[in-house]
Design a protein that fits this description.
It is a single chain. With about 250 residues, this protein is mainly alpha-helical. The protein is built from ten helices and no strands. It folds into two domains: about 90 residues, no CATH class; about 160 residues, no CATH class.
Length: about 250
């Protein structure tokens, strides 16, 4: 029942995330005004605003202007629902950990979607949740002070060094802030696992396009998307992977 509850809750939060993404892009507050069609501006009725269901009921088109509704909306809602449900499945009855990881996954999804479409990473997606996460991390002892400090220094410092060397041509300032957020989430040494997975995943995605001579496709996906996926995987399985690797080489 907890898995079902958190899955439904995730779908609802996914709907809110879609609104937040669009309002961030157009410079509107997510706390003011009702949901509206981004094409014609018509305020949505409750029937048009049911997560996932309304998209299929409307057959992917606005009821007023009949313009297509982006597939992003149901996909994000379903993705966040799955992530919340997975967190509940992974942690069982440890509800505090479920809430912690669901919150982190919410903001990682925010970074993934926004960076994918707009190649930007805002403080509200990384710095602010990182600062908030520090408080329960200290209270409940999820990480030691040393692990947290090294994780943040390595996460932010690794990308800051690249930024300085390349003068901002390799990565942007948003990646530095995301690296800091990753350090708060994962600590040391799991931050290394996430960075490794991000670069390997990026290379595996880019390589086929390079081999086919499609260089534009190879560079199309921003690096923040790889970092968020790698962070999510490392959150749940990084410790097991690291133990396996150490056992392999020892």
């Amino acid at each position: 029942m907890s898995i079902l509850f958190f899955t439904i809750l995730g779908v609802l939060f996914g709907s809110f995330l879609n609104a937040w993404i669009w309002r961030t892009k157009v410079g509107k507050s997510v706390m003011k005004g009702r949901s509206a069609c981004p094409k014609c501006g018509n305020v949505l009725s409750w029937k048009e605003n049911i997560p996932v269901v309304s998209f299929f009921w409307l057959r992917g088109r606005c009821l007023t202007c009949q313009k297509p509704i982006s597939i992003q909306y149901p996909l994000v809602e379903l993705a966040v629902g799955f992530l919340f449900g997975f967190s509940a499945w992974f942690h069982g009855a440890e509800y505090l950990l479920i809430v912690r990881d669901a919150s982190i996954l919410f903001f990682l999804t925010f970074v993934f979607v926004y960076d994918f479409f707009y190649q930007e990473i805002w403080d509200r997606m990384t710095t602010y949740p990182a600062l908030v996460l520090l408080i329960p991390t200290a209270i409940f002892g999820w990480q030691s002070g040393m692990s947290l400090t090294i994780g943040v220094v390595v996460g932010a410092g690794f990308f800051l060094l690249q930024y300085l060397i390349s003068r901002g041509t390799w990565i942007g300032g948003g990646d530095i802030r995301l690296g800091m957020f990753m350090g708060v989430i994962l600590g040391w040494p799991l931050i290394l696992v996430a960075i490794f997975f991000a670069y390997v995943g990026g290379a595996l995605f880019v390589l086929p396009f390079l081999m086919l001579g499609k260089k534009k496709m190879a560079s199309r996906v921003p690096f923040g998307t790889y970092l968020t996926i790698a962070t999510a995987v490392t959150m749940f399985y990084g410790a097991d992977i690291l133990s396996w690797y150490i056992g392999l080489i020892s």
